[in-house]
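Exercise 3.2. Students should predict the tertiary structure of the chain below and write it as structure tokens, then compare their answer with the key that follows.

Predict this chain's 3D structure.
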Amino acid sequence: MVLTQPRPGCGRALEPVVAECVAAGADAIQLRDKTADSRALVATVARLRAITEPAGAVLIVNDRLDVALAAGADGVHLGPDDLPLAAARDIAPPPFLIGYSADDPDDARRAAADGADYLGVGAVFGTRSKPGLADEAIGPGQVRAVREASRLPCLGIGGITPGNAASVFATGAGVAVLSAVMAAPDPSTVVQQLLRSAR
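Answer key:
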């Protein structure tokens, strides 16, 4: 899963960058934009959906269940400070996907019981994409523990690069990546490198 930022580091617009990532093999995109208003987010989802849907890639919206539903995204990713997971599941029945952030096995089991479809687990190696997590590295072993406790598909997130992704894939989880892709001069090459490390 590639998480987006409004202005990719390569200097090109978001839409062509997402198209290149999907063409390179990314099978999920998460729209992450903490500053745009609802109208702008809905418009962005529509543009990205025109890229992801024909390619068979999943489009997730970060935090905003209302935007995800209104714009026809495939799902939403929620955190502990967002709408409660069980309430979101009541509003958006399957096949709409609901992801949840959890780095603790007990939280993971609760999320599974409340209807999560997958979990984002991290920060695996620490991250500067989210305030306060630069020194919070849970490590691949905790990703495995969360995956085994929840019995849900899991994506390790936080500080993941082509150089360390293999250790996350080895836990049976996938990876979700923001900075390594969005800050790269050639995002599609990074996606290809990440996928090669899964083999």
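Discussion points: The CA atoms of residues 129 and 179 lie 7 Å apart. The chain has a mean pLDDT of 96.
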